[in-house]
Write a structure and sequence with these properties.
Elements: H1 3-9, H2 12-21, H3 40-56, E1 68-72, H4 79-86, E2 91-95, H5 103-119, H6 153-164, E3 172-176, E4 190-196, H7 205-215, E5 216-227, H8 245-252, H9 264-274, E6 276-285, E7 309-318
Parallel strand pairs: 1-2, 1-4, 2-3, 4-5
Antiparallel strand pairs: 5-7, 6-7
């Protein structure tokens, strides 16, 4: 590969960060926080986008069907799960690998979310939320998914405050780290497991989807928005697929979360092999600027669609 093409593929800063990480003690490599879902508007937007697609694909007819939910990788706040509780869920389990969330921040997010639901704010989609996925055809508040009884927001918000403070409450919030060590606790118990831009960071997706299958009750649902892009590592959205293994190891060294470089087809296969029936895939299309025969990841089989899809929502049901 020519030097000028390599410069386009690998951004300088993450490469330097990877090299420097070999020189630093472990305690200086990782910082707390993910830079993720600490905005109440973002959390509200993400939750309602997942919910609308669950309804549109026939996986739910009303929000009351979702009582026990789990989130993989909530990041800096539990806001998406709090939005689920404000929608009528009774139990929320937040699973992460590294602890990030803080009490004060979650209470502030809960208060803002309460106001959004009370006013039935339309789903944030403009300005900084224009690139949030999954996309929707209509960003009005989905009142048709809620019944009048589901929107007793103030009372539910009070119970969420109590749960966050670890006091007696009618709702349950469990924050569990690390998430991949507790599969025996929730077998056959959950209605919905979701994630937002997380599954691209999971090292063993086959194991992860198999664990989710165990956690869900029969008819339970997964809803995962997955980002297949190179993140900040390359100027080209799929440039990370063209970086050789030696350079990739340097780029990943010292990072809190790796990027697994798996395309859509790999997730589809892993979800199906775990036993799920896939019901809905919402792709975001992008142009492929590089030759497919130059790809450096030999252990994963790519198909033609993979080179056109930079992210996707995948929703599937446990049969």
């Amino acid at each position: 590969m020519h030097n000028n093409t390599m410069k386009m593929l690998i951004n300088t800063r993450p490469l330097l960060r990877g090299i420097i990480s070999y020189l630093l003690p472990q305690k200086y490599r990782n910082r707390k926080g993910t830079g993720g879902s600490s905005s109440a508007e973002y959390c509200y937007s993400v939750w309602l986008r997942h919910l609308v697609h669950l309804y549109n694909s026939g996986l739910i007819t009303n929000v009351t069907e979702i009582k026990k939910v789990a989130e993989i990788g909530p990041g800096d706040s539990l806001g998406i799960g709090i939005a689920a509780l404000l929608s009528g869920a009774q139990e929320y389990y937040a699973f992460d690998i590294i602890e990030h969330a803080n009490l004060a921040g979650n209470i502030q997010v809960a208060d803002k979310l309460c106001n959004f639901f009370k006013s039935q704010l339309e789903i944030p989609s403009g300005k900084e939320y224009g690139n949030v996925n999954p996309p929707l055809d209509n960003y009005n508040f989905p009142s048709h998914i809620f019944s009048k009884n589901d929107l007793n927001i103030r009372q539910q918000a009070e119970q969420i405050h109590l749960a966050l403070l670890k006091k007696a409450s009618t709702c349950k919030i469990e924050y569990i780290v690390p998430w991949d060590k507790i599969d025996h606790l929730l077998v056959g118990n959950l209605d919905l497991i979701y994630s937002q831009a997380v599954m691209e960071h999971v090292t063993d997706i086959n194991k992860a989807y198999s664990i989710m299958y165990k956690w869900l009750k029969k008819g339970g649902i997964i809803s995962h928005q997955i980002d297949f892009k190179a993140h900040e590592l390359s100027e080209i959205w799929n440039g990370h697929w063209y970086i050789n293994d030696a350079l990739w190891q340097i780029l990943m060294h010292g990072r809190k979360y790796i990027i697994n470089r798996l395309p859509l087809s790999s997730h589809i296969n892993a979800i199906s092999e775990a036993g799920f029936a896939i019901k809905n895939v919402v792709p975001v299309l992008n142009n492929n600027e590089l030759r497919t025969d130059n790809i450096k990841i030999k252990k994963h089989k790519f198909n033609e669609e993979d080179f056109k899809i930079s992210s996707a929502l995948i929703q599937a049901v446990k049969q």
